[in-house]
Amino acid sequence: MSMSFERYMLDMVQPMRDELTRLGITELRTPEEVEAALPDAKGTALVVVNSVCGCAAGQCRPGVAAALQHDVTPDHLYTVFAGQDKEATAKAREYFAPYPPSSPSIALMKDGELVHFIERHQIENRSAQEIAAELDAAFDRHCR
Fold first, then answer.
1. Are 117 and 106 contacting, i.e. CB atoms less than 8 angstroms apart?
2. Residues 20, 41, 47, 55: which is the catalytic one?
3. Entry pTM
């Protein structure tokens, strides 16, 4: 029995998607969904660029999960999945200038403007707790 590559990839990445959506983070899977959410999001919005890499699994997603336990959190929570929802990810990255494409990465926006960004190189060599602490500080600064 043969399984299509697309089906295989959907099955493989679903647990990685679920790790964020079970936290209440909304997936933006199309450019239209990104356009409907990001530019007009009043208040603060966290955007997690998810990925299949080890630093997404070991540091990024657990760091985001820990940060969302903080007493101050963003008004809106979103995620796009690099390499899977390519067009949605490309559209979201338009809002992250001047930063180059990076996955995983974490953006904090306020009233549609980028106010804090964590790039892959700031994720891959840090612990989930260090990432959570940086997000907590950004939440305190921008989400009150």
1. yes
2. 55
3. 0.94
